Amino acid sequence: MTRSNLVTLAGLAVAVLFAAIGVVHTKYLTRIHFAQLQDLRGQRDAIDVEWNRLRLEEAALSTHARVERKARRELGMFAPRVGDVLLIEDTGHGHP
Question: Which residue stretches, if any, does this entry annotate as coiled coil (predicted)?
């Protein structure tokens, strides 16, 4: 083998070595990032479960019957009697 062939062969061997190191490093980073992705997906799923639970709780707490019951008991509110209602009609005077 000539000297130039040896230099070319050595250069190719170094290039293959660096490529192999690059592949190993990339595979390592892929595994790290995949593990992080799985953790994030687990967090997302837990947040989705919590969000759905909160939506159900909100729906249960905001039913009309419950709001009316709390208004009557805690705030002393009541529906107005017929005699307590005053109807005011707008005749349209004073409008351009």
Answer: none
Contact 81, 87 (CB under 8 A): no
3-state secondary structure at position 78:
coil
Contact 71, 77 (CB under 8 A): yes
Whether the model clears a pTM of 0.70, i.e. scores above it, the answer is no
Dihedral of the alpha carbons of 77, 74, 57, 47, in degrees to the nearest 10: 120
Q: Which of 27, 3, 4, 5 is nearest to 19 (CA)?
A: 27
CA angle 80, 86, 91 (to 5 degrees): 145
Give the tens place of pLDDT for each residue, 24-35: 999 999 999 999
